[in-house]
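Researcher: Batch entry, complex prediction.
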Amino acid sequence: MNRTNAKIFCAVLLTAVFFSGTAAAQKITFVPQWTAQAQFAGYYVAEDLGFYKDAGLDVEIVHPSIAQPAMDRVLNGECQATTLQLCQALDVVDSGTPIVNILQTSMNNGMVIASSRGVDPLTQKGARVGIWSVGFGQMAICMSVKEQLNYEWVRFASNVNLFVAGALDATLAMSYNEFYQLLQAGMQIPEKSVYRFCDHGYNVQEDGLYMTREYFNKHKDEAHRFAQASRRGWEWAAEHPEETLDIVMKYVDQAQIATNRTMQRLMLAEVLRLQVDRESGEREFRLRPDMVKLASSLMVENFMLGREIAYEELVEQ
Amino acid sequence: MSLWVVLFAAVIFLAALSFLFVQSRTAVRQEAISHATEILDKTSLRVTGILNRVEVASKMTEWLVNRHIDNPESMLLYSRSMLENNPDFSSCSIAFEPYYFKEYGRYFSAYTRYDADTLRTSQGGSDAYQYFYMDWYLMPKLLDRATWTEPYMELDAASGHQEMVTSYSRPILNSKGDYVGTLNTGLSLNWLSQTISAVKPYPHSYSVMIGKGGTYFVHPDEKKLLKQTIFTPTMEKPDSALDSLGHAMQRGEEGMTELSVDGQHCYVFYKPLGVTGWSMAIVCPESDIFQGFTRLRTTALIIVAVGLLLMLFFFIRIITRELQPLRRLADEAETIASGQFQTQLPDFGRIDEIGQLSQSFGNMQHSLVNYINELKTTTAQKASLESELNVASSIQMSMLPSVFPEREGLDMYASMSPAKEVGGDLYGYLLAENSLYFCVGDVSGKGVPASLFMAQVTRLFRTLAGQHLLPAEICRQLNDALSGEENQTDMFVTLFVGLVDLTTGHLSFCNAGHNPPVIGGGESGGEFLKMLSNFPVGVLPGLEFQGEEVESIKNRPLFIYTDGLNEAENRAHEQFGDDRLLDILRNTRFNSARQVVETLSECIEKHRDGADPNDDLTMMCLRVS
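Model: Structure tokens for the complex:
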């Protein structure tokens, strides 16, 4: 081997090393905001069927715990992505952490108020109403003030037993989760006793996929690929609900969640229903400026935000 | 026959067994209910006993807490004392509202639990465990009364195993009666879980326990444990029976229901566990409860079926064997019936009904053979008699002339048909130059005696006519010859004796009690001959007979007959009659004497219409021209 050939060999070798280095999958730790359930089916599908891998990403899905909530992990850099309801996202931005919505999955609000007294919640002035201790109830608080219902909010870790025992007059519930849990506990809740926020002018989007703006600005390409692969996961889930359920149950069983296939099937169907925009009838996967405006205004009115948060502050600029 | 007997027996058996089965099933069912109820009562009683102890201990501690409600250090002490005094309790929290003890900040919960075998008391609240959002804390606060929480699984750090625990929570009120915190006593429920799991009254039965929300806290299927409620299957597929059971158990009711579990029909016995709001149920597959009963029923049915089949088999055998002699007897009877009277009947050597029947049959055969032999003899005798009668008939018929004179100016014909083989009627004639003697008579009675009497009359007539006597004289002499000592049988004969002068047509006649002949011609075309009435010949000796005369019967046909003609009967016993006779003769054109006799013979045949002749029939017709 002469010197020239040696130089060429070294150049080829270096190039190979360089290329292999850039081809290594980008690691993203994703922590959804709740324990394993069909609410996050699309992400499980994307991971299980290799959509993330196809996108050149090494995504690890880790679920939060009481000691380590999702947003805490995002803030301390332990994870790069999480899911948030729109109201939570506004709250985070207002508290001084710029974040970016890289994929909006929910197109409708799934929160309900279920009365345990068999009456219309709008007639239950001053009633004792359960609300999650970890948030999620912003729209309900706004509605209570606006409709002059003056509910007495009872923060809970879990509402089923309190509801069954009659300790609450009514409770907040997600149509895809707690509401089914109440029914599964044998509660007979007539439709007139269910107040659906989406039907009363509070149709504010919920779950979306978020990253801190700081991380996003540095890893735009990975963020886009992550969002696209996640969307692909949700679209596959919509087309293959029963196979998706198999995947969901795998995650549920690994996490030893006290749920069952029936509940997860109902949850998946409801979550997928909420992903279809009421006006277009399409699975749009986009944040709607009008809903951001509505949520922001209501929260400012009720002193939940220090200022109006604009749509542009949540999306890629 | 056998089949009918067995079918009847089967109906009786099945009716009796059905009644027995229904009664047994009711008894087994009642026994199962009693058994299950007893188990449920015992378990419930045991649970109530233990839970009562927790409630009593909690009340006592609450009293102490209220005495020192402003002293947080005391809370730590009481929390620990609770477990020291009750080693079977698993934990104790005396938790207060946020910032109740300002020096402790937001959280204060005096929490004692076992750490391995040693007690550990600490301050239990933190940002990571915000106890005032927990069920055990909220329940007494919101309900304003003590309550048992739903069981939940807790990881035992020492053993690494999860154990089921529950807790009893009491609200802590300050001196003003305001709620300030919750006293919570934890109790491991592993013993309860094991106790209920062990309840297995039948091989495939199992027990479950559900909480107030229907969650399975005890269930043999671990996939359902804590993950499903009793209502879960009804979420996607309505099941009103399961739904009703779940709600009844939630309401704290006690009872029994039947429903299908995984496609198997089961009896479910349920009862609430004390005041906890939890409910226990024993699920017993019907097949288990009625296993013994089903086995008994199957065995009984098999025994009955086999018994009936055996009965059928033996009945057929016995009846076949018993009927075998009868069958042989029937075959032999057939043989005898076919004419083989000497067939030897089998000897069955039996003295029962079959033997008696066989013997009677033998006697009958013997009698039959004798009878047949007698019949043969009688038949032979009868044949002989018939043969003799035939001869007699031939002889009698030969006495009557079958040939009539063929002479210019005379047309004569006669016939006699006896009602039996031989008859008592007679006719005869004797032609001597221009004088024609003729007679027609009817002897009283029929058959052989009459025929013999008739033969005598015929012979005498011919003898007397040969002496050229007048008809009245012939009758007188006939009477003398046939009556009195000569006539032992008291027989007699009616007789019409005539003498015609063939040249003049002059007719002399004597009628001895005979039917009036019909004489043709005249204004009416024919009429009965009017004549004197004399006695029949042979009635009494010495009688005188008067003769009469008709000037001329030239061209006037004379028809003489016996009462076998006008009194001939048909099937309805209607007589032919004089009028009809006269009518026929008047309306029959005379072609010949024979034609007249044959015409009337046909009319009589027609009148009889197949009926047997009731008397001898004799007709004579003559015409002088």
